[in-house]
Every structure is written in structure tokens, then in C-alpha cells.
Design goal:
Blueprint lengths: L22 E10 L8 E7 L4 E6 L7 H7 L1 E6 L2 E6 L4 E3 L1 E2 L1 H19 L3 E6 L6 H11 L3 H5 L2 E6 H8 L9 H8 L10 H23 L13 H8 L3 E3 H20 L1 H4 L9 H16 L4 H10 L4 H10 L6 H16 L23 H17 L4 E5 L2 E5 L3 H13 L1
Helix pairs in contact: 3-9, 5-7, 6-7, 9-11, 12-13, 13-14
């Protein structure tokens, strides 16, 4: 079962802005090959009122089915080469490598700051869970671009949290579609592309900052969204700002959580297999994630079992004490599964030869197998008839005669 990566949020929003006139708000967003931390960026976009950045990236892996429907992108193979294709207009997209696209994105940020006389940028993105930021930081770390990125970016701000704080009395849902319809009066918007989402996030923040700008002018003059100063935007987003160091810490915490979850697959490998029902797999995933969130990995469970091997009650109490947030029923289910694993450890079976794609009911048949079946069926249909008997081992066995012999025997009988 493919599961989205759950990001561990450890940010504390302690970013201080010294001089508000030195900062510029820029909208950004990315399209990814999936919603897991091991997925890749396939499209990165930035937006300001005067300039836009748009670059597609050729990923190493294919885009999964959910991301295809979300972003209307797919990977195709043309001979020896791979390319990105837009599903909506069926056109092949011009793409670059990830390191080239990230370097160009940083250069574009530097150029925007230089053109507007600013020193650092505040990147705004609309997302419910902090996934895009972690994936961007992960890619920057992989190519040693984080130091250069930190020179031009002060931090990240979430448009979802910003809108939720300012509109919680009048709105219930805070998705991009709802916010665009209510605040920007835009219907039937397209949110499949990163360029559109980056523009909408910027416009929503700019619209919500109009109230602050109007309050500063004491209502003497009506202020539109395009007239909101960068100082007002920076001040409004200062309480929602997270630094790059906090995002790096969030990334490392998430990677540690995933490592603990992976170590616990030994305990739940049978329940996580596709031979079990969907309900059992979801239950096993929930138990595994609860154990990992409690900072328990497989080595910790092994040491606890070694210390309390003769005293199962002591082992149960030791494990339950580390899971204070769960109910008694959930604790009992987790402990019973762990004890069953250590008492009767089952070896993890290797994957079938040829991969899961051609194993089981979807196994590919060879051409010789099909030819043999065809020849057997033709021989059976053309040469067998239920009219004669054969004696074998004292039993009468019905053997089919060829159809042409039946016709000849009938003709001979008529002539006689």
C-alpha cells in the first residue's frame, strides 16, 4: 500500500525581521511525482506581479497515478529517451535536469531582489501539510545548493495557515478553490499546474493584506491589492514565517521517523503484504506509525524483549508505558502482535523472480506455451469423434474417431 509521507512539524516560528523594507514576498509551488519523501520534483514555479518563473524537470522515476490526475503530467519513452508530456493538450514539454532548474530558480530570485531593491525573499506557498518545503530542502541539500539558497531566502510562509487565521470567523474550508472563489471572486480555476497555484497563493496573501494597509491609512483612501506595500506583506507574514534551519530540522526528523517505520516492517511484514485485506493493512500501518512516533524502533523492541523474555507482563508494561496517547485496546493489539512476532519469527520471503508485475495472476505466458495450447486444441477438435472404443487395462475407453472416417463409413453402408 502506497502511503503519503507524514511530515513531522518541529518549527517554532521564531524568525525575526529586522527591517521590513528589505524583504520581498514571492509566490512559489512545485509539482511532484508523488506525495512521498522519496519522490521528485517535476515542475517548479515562482510568481511576482512583474515576473514569473516556470521550469519543468525530467524526473528519474515515473509519475504515479494520483500525481498524473492531480498535475495532468506523465512520462513517456520515445526510443532511447524519456520526456514529460502534458496530458491536457497532449504536447511534449521542454524539461531540464533538477540541478539546472534549481540553480535557475535561485538566479531568478536573485534577479527579482536586485530589480526591486530588496535583500531577501519570503516564499509563500499554499499547502495543508508541509510537504513541498521539505522536498525542496531535500533537493537543495542533495546538490549542495542550500547555502546559496539561504543567501536570498529568509524563510517560508504557508498561505493556508495565514488565510485560516484571518478568515476563521467567516469561512470553514481554506482550499485554494474556496479561497479564490470567496476572496478573489474567481470560479472554475485550474489548480493542476504549479504556476497557477503560485499565482493564487500570492494573490490571496495580497488580498488579505489590504485590510492591514487600509487600517494603517485610517480609512482615508481605498487601497487595492496591487497597491499593498511589501512592508505590509512582510509584517503580516512575520508571525507565520519559518526559517530554513527549522525546515532542515523538520526534514531530518521526518527521515528519522521513516527509518523507524522501515525497521518495524519486520514485525508487520505479513500484515502489510497484499495477501491480507485492506482493513488489516490500514490497521497495521496505523500501529506501526504509532510505535515509530513514540521513538521506538526494532532494536529497542529487541532489547526490551531480551530483558523481559521470561516475564511477558513486564514486557507488556514496558511497551505500553512508551505509548501513553493510545487507548488500552490499541496498546493490547500492538503488544500482542510484537509478542507473536518474537515468539514465532517468520522469515521475510523474497520478492518473486521477475518482479511483482509478472508474478501471480498477472504472470506473462510465453509464446511457446500459447503455440502448444493452439496445436493441442486443433488436434482435439479435428481428429476426435465419440464413436469407437479402445480396450486398455480391461476397461472400455471412448476414443473419438476422425470426422472423415465417419463420413466414409456412412457412404459404404448406403452403397451396400
Amino acid at each position: 500500500m502506497v502511503q503519503n509521507t507524514e511530515i513531522v512539524d518541529v518549527s517554532n516560528n521564531t524568525v525575526t525581521l529586522d527591517n521590513l523594507s528589505d524583504y520581498m514576498v514571492i509566490g512559489w509551488d512545485i509539482d511532484t511525482t508523488g506525495r512521498r519523501l522519496l519522490d521528485e520534483i517535476c515542475h517548479i514555479a515562482g510568481h511576482t506581479p512583474n515576473s514569473q518563473f516556470n521550469q519543468y524537470i525530467m524526473p528519474h522515476n515515473d509519475i504515479d497515478q494520483v500525481a498524473r490526475r492531480r498535475h495532468l503530467l506523465c512520462t513517456i519513452t520515445m526510443g532511447r529517451f524519456r520526456a514529460l508530456k502534458d496530458i491536457k493538450n497532449n504536447k511534449t514539454l521542454k524539461s531540464k535536469s533538477e540541478i539546472s532548474a534549481l540553480a535557475e530558480f535561485i538566479e531568478w530570485l536573485e534577479q527579482m531582489l536586485k530589480d526591486n531593491g530588496k535583500k531577501m525573499a519570503i516564499l509563500v506557498c499554499h499547502e495543508v501539510s508541509k510537504f513541498n518545503t521539505c522536498l525542496l530542502i531535500k533537493s537543495l541539500l542533495a546538490y549542495n545548493l542550500l547555502d546559496k539558497f539561504s543567501e536570498v531566502v529568509k524563510g517560508f510562509a504557508n498561505c493556508h495557515s495565514f488565510a485560516q487565521t484571518h478568515c476563521q470567523d467567516t469561512m470553514v474550508m481554506f482550499s485554494l478553490r474556496v479561497l479564490s472563489k470567496v476572496l478573489l471572486d474567481k470560479d472554475h480555476i485550474d489548480t493542476s499546474k504549479a504556476t497557477d497555484r503560485a499565482k493564487l497563493a500570492y494573490d490571496i496573501v495580497q488580498h488579505l493584506c489590504v485590510t492591514l494597509e487600509t487600517g494603517k491609512d485610517d480609512g482615508k483612501e481605498v487601497v487595492t491589492g496591487s497597491e499593498v506595500s511589501e512592508e505590509t506583506k512582510a509584517k503580516a507574514l512575520s508571525t507565520f514565517l519559518t526559517s530554513i534551519d527549522n525546515e532542515v530540522q523538520t526534514l531530518h526528523s521526518t527521515q528519522e521517523l521513516l527509518a523507524r517505520q522501515k525497521s518495524l516492517n519486520t514485525v508487520y511484514h505479513k500484515s502489510l503484504s497484499y495477501q491480507t485485506s485492506t482493513l488489516d493493512r490500514k490497521k497495521a500501518i496505523s500501529y506501526r506509525n504509532s510505535i515509530a512516533k513514540a521513538n521506538i524502533d526494532y532494536i529497542t523492541l529487541q532489547s526490551l524483549w531480551t530483558e523481559n523474555k521470561e516475564n511477558k507482563d513486564g514486557f507488556k508494561d514496558a511497551v505500553k508505558d512508551k505509548l501513553p496517547e493510545l487507548s488500552d485496546e490499541e496498546k493490547e493489539g500492538i503488544v500482542s502482535t510484537i509478542i507473536m512476532h518474537f515468539e514465532n519469527p517468520e522469515p521475510v520471503s523474497p520478492p518473486p523472480k521477475g518482479g511483482r508485475k509478472y508474478g501471480g495472476r498477472f504472470r506473462r505466458r510465453s509464446g511457446s506455451y500459447k503455440d502448444n495450447r493452439k496445436s493441442i486444441s486443433e488436434n482435439d477438435a479435428g481428429s476426435l469423434s465419440p464413436n469407437s472404443t479402445d480396450h486398455a487395462n480391461g476397461h472400455n475407453l471412448e476414443v473419438e474417431k476422425p470426422q472423415n472416417e465417419i463420413i466414409k463409413s456412412q457412404e459404404n453402408g448406403e452403397n451396400n
